[in-house]
Amino acid sequence: MKVLVFVVNYRADDYLLRLIASLQTAMAQCPEVKLRLHVHDNSEKNIDEQRRQIEAMAEVACWVDVHFSPKNTGYFGSLGLAQALAGPDTDCVIYCNPDLTLAPDFFSVLATIAGGSAGVLAPSIISESDGFDQNPKYILRPTRRKLARLRLIYSNAGTFWMFHVLTLLKERLARDRTPPSRSAMPIFAAHGSVMLFTDVGFFKSLPPFPCFLFGEELFVAEEAKRRGVPTYYEPRLRVHDVRHASIRLLPKRARREMLHESIRFLLGTYYR
User: Which of 34, 203, 213, 222 is the most buried if burial means most Cβ atoms within 10 Å?
Assistant: First the structure.
């Protein structure tokens, strides 16, 4: 099984090295997996820093390729590059952030289920801070009313700040509850921090996503819905996530504007 892992990195090199180490461990437990890791670095480093990092990456593993962008293009800004790198013999594409690690048995489990009916797989993404699984992101398709409400919230700094505080409070209260136990099941959308595309043809046919950040999971889900590509939550595939290591570096105003733009795009494109 040939797997392409595509990581979008923004000033999170320490987390990236943790991810590479977890990939090495998972590969050792599943020798039949042939893996290639491509890192698209959006960190806007100067040329000397880029050369040093390339040399450091080469020392870590020969199966790592680093691509640099002259500017930060966002999470799905490098989607076209990832699509071009997925050759005809690729069996699975993993598109993800750097602030996560894979369980040691990740590829062993993937090898047993990759030939199933799912075109997109949502792994169990366990937050290192509270132990909660961030998947399934959306079991059902969000209603137009829900997205319109979010667009209204994101349109104003005051309502966005209140929503942000309430969300943090809700997450804090959730830590005191036992997480729900779910089995593998069909869902509408996977969490965007890591998505597995076992239908590589579908991945390569995705159109460009015009938003800088946010909304990627709904964009993929809507395109899958249009084409009849099933998405499945698979808790046996385990990932541990730090959560928002790069997003925390962005100002709140920029985050609010990007969230608003992503909702506006989704509503205008898929909810007409």
Answer: 203
Start-to-end CA span in the chain (Å): 40
Q: How many residues does the chain have?
A: 272
Query: Token pair of 3, please?
Result: 């797997």
Give the integer Cα–Cα distance in Å for 168 and 55. Answer: 40
Among candidate residues 129, 147, 130, the one with its CA nearest the CA of residue 138:
147
Joined together, the tokens standing for residue 237 give: 């595939």
Q: Tokens 């595509």 map to which residue?
A: 6
Residues forming beta bridges with residue 239, ordered by sequence position: 102, 125
For the cut 70, the answer to whether the pLDDT of residue 206 exceeds it is: yes
Structure tokens at 84: 């071009």
Gap between the Cα atoms of 91 and 115, Å rounded: 9
Task: Give the model's pLDDT for residue 87.
Answer: 93
Distance (Å, whole) CA 237 – CA 239: 7
Contact 248, 134 (CB under 8 A): no
- What whole-number distance in Å separates Cα of residue 147 and Cα of residue 155? 12
Please say if the pLDDT value at position 247 is more than 80: no
Q: Is residue 210 classed as helix, strand or coil in its secondary structure?
A: coil
Pairing label, strands 34-41, 194-197: unpaired
pLDDT band at 180 (very low <50, low <70, confident <90, very high): low
Q: Look up the pTM and report it.
A: 0.91
154 φ, ψ (degrees, to nearest 5) = -75, -10
For residues 82, 200, 185 and 271, what is the CA-based torsion angle, rounded to 10 degrees?
70
| CATH number, span 2-138+183-242 | 3.90.550.10
- Residue found by looking up tokens 């799912």 in the block: 118
- Whether cis (ω within 30° of 0) applies to the bond prior to 136 is yes
